[in-house]
């Protein structure tokens, strides 16, 4: 029977192998997670939301300053409202007029946050910020994978790490999940157009298993938050101007913010579809799952495919969720870890609610008082037929072997139907647990009493 079980499992495995990603590469394409999600992007400070505000600009090598108005009460419009600097302006757009737009914080506010809230778990690749203002003197990037309930820091950024983040390592990372302070993307130069770049997985480190728990933790996100903690002021960069009031020139301004990522399919999908509408260029949320997996992120096995445990995909398809084998007598099953271990990893599926008088983990046996018709197959809905046993001489009033149909006789009873006493025994009675008595006088007395 073990050979038959292994053979059936092998056939199902070959069938499952046909359900593969193109070129066996289950890797969704990268895109900008910001696109189409302006309603899910928030900033703690934006100039001009409550009315016009003045701000002034002075280049790093410029003496003169130019002053302008910020009025973000209405959305940006190239033709009617170029002075609006709302946070949605940082999202990449195909509209050439949007190249003139940017987001800007209020004057003199050091602690400002920008947060993107995603509708499900995505895979984060890298972040690129392009500043119109000076880059922050200090900032950090955080991530959440439980919709903002808990947060983890990705990286600190500061020109002077010892000053702004004294307890954080400022040396190069020793491992892929080290939290360090990076000084390469801070400072006063350039005064505009400077970038901050963060990669989720540092290319310095070789990744042996892209689905290892450590890697999955680093790239799985439902929320990303930027925390700017210190403005780069002109007083920090131009000591000759220290007499001037810096307030109207101190603000954060971003031309562009790109968060590259993809839908997260746990190695079981290579493309995704929209959950509830979307726009061109948007990274959709719901995976098109392969390998008999299901869920927005292919995070579980499909119904009736619990013969093997779910696990992330990899270079091969050995971890696919395999279809349960209920021999056509059930359309529901569940995974049972104890059975999977007992069979040496061959089968862990347990069928529920077997029909057609069937029972067993795979509906492979007939129920009590039924047996397998030798002329019918295991998948035949009429394959189980009633036992033909004498209820007086067989156990439990008519029990037979589920495979052969041979009746299971009481101790002192024999015959295919368990309908006669063994030699030397007498008085076949249902009430007698042994079926017949060996004492003639006792058997005669019992007969008289009855």
The gyration radius over C-alpha positions equals: 37 Å
Count of alpha/pi helices: 6
Low-confidence stretches: 1-18, 239-247
Q: Quickly give the CATH architecture of the largest domain.
A: Sandwich
Beginning-to-end CA distance, first to last residue: 48 Å
Features:
450 residues; Laminin_N; alpha+beta; 6 helices; 10-stranded mixed β-sheet; Jelly Rolls; Tie2 ligand-binding domain fold; secreted; LMN_ATRN_NET-like_EGF; coiled coil; disordered N terminus
Provide structural commentary:
- The structure is a single chain.
- By secondary structure, the chain is α+β, with helices and mostly antiparallel strands.
- The chain has 3 domains: 2-22 and 269-323, Tie2 ligand-binding domain superfamily (Tie2 ligand-binding domain fold), CATH 2.170.300.10; 29-235 and 248-263, Galactose-binding domain-like (Jelly Rolls); 387-450, Tie2 ligand-binding domain fold, CATH 2.170.300.10.
- Helices cover 10% and strands 25% of the residues.
- It contains 6 helices and 24 strands.
- Strands 1, 2, 5, 6, 7, 8, 9, 10, 11 and 12 form a 10-stranded mixed β-sheet that branches. A two-stranded antiparallel sheet has the order 3-4. A two-stranded antiparallel sheet has the order 13-14.
- Strand 19 (358-359) and strand 20 (365-366) form a beta hairpin.
- The longest helix is centred in the N-terminal third of the chain and has 15 residues, at 2-16.
- The two termini are 48 Å apart.
């Amino acid at each position: 029977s073990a050979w038959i079980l292994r053979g059936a499992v092998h056939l199902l495995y070959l069938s499952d192998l046909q359900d593969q990603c193109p070129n066996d590469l289950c890797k969704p394409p990268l895109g900008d997670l910001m696109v189409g999600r302006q309603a899910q992007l928030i900033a703690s400070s934006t100039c001009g939301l409550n009315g016009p505000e003045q701000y002034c600009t002075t280049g790093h090598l410029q003496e003169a300053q130019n002053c302008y108005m910020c009025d973000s009460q209405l959305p940006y419009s190239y033709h009617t409202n170029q002075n609006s600097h709302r946070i949605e302006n940082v999202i990449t757009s195909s509209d050439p007029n949007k190249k003139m737009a940017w987001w800007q914080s209020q004057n003199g506010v050091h602690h400002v946050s920008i947060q993107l809230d995603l509708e499900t778990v995505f895979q984060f690749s890298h972040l690129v910020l392009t500043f119109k203002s000076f880059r922050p003197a200090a900032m950090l990037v955080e991530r959440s994978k439980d919709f903002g309930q808990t947060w983890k820091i990705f990286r600190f950024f500061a020109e002077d790490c010892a000053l702004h983040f004294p307890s954080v390592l400022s040396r190069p990372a020793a491992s892929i999940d080290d939290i360090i302070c990076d000084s390469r993307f801070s400072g006063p130069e350039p005064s505009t157009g400077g970038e901050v770049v963060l990669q989720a997985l540092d290319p310095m480190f070789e990744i042996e298993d892209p689905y290892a728990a450590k890697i999955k933790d680093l790239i799985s996100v439902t929320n990303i938050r930027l925390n700017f903690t210190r403005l780069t002021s002109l007083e920090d960069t131009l000591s000759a101007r220290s007499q001037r009031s810096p307030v109207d020139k101190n603000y954060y301004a971003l031309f562009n913010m790109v968060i590259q990522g993809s839908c997260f399919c746990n190695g079981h999908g290579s493309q995704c579809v929209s959950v509830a509408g979307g726009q061109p260029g948007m990274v959709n949320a719901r995976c098109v799952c392969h390998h008999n997996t299901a869920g927005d992120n292919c995070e579980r096995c499909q119904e009736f495919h619990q013969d093997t445990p779910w696990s992330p995909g990899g270079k091969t398809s050995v971890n696919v969720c395999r279809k349960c084998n209920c021999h056509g007598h059930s359309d529901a099953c569940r995974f049972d870890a104890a059975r999977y271990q007992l069979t040496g990893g061959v089968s862990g599926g347990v069928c529920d609610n077997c029909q057609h008088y069937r029972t067993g983990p795979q509906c492979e046996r007939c129920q009590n008082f039924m047996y397998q018709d030798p002329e019918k197959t295991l998948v035949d809905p009429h394959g189980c037929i009633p036992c033909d046993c004498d209820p007086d001489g067989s156990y439990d009033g008519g029990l037979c072997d589920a495979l052969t149909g041979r009746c299971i006789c009481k101790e002192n009873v024999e015959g295919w139907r368990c309908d006669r006493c063994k030699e030397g025994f007498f008085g076949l009675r249902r009430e007698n647990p042994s079926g017949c008595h060996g004492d003639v006088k006792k058997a005669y007395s019992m007969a008289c009493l009855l």
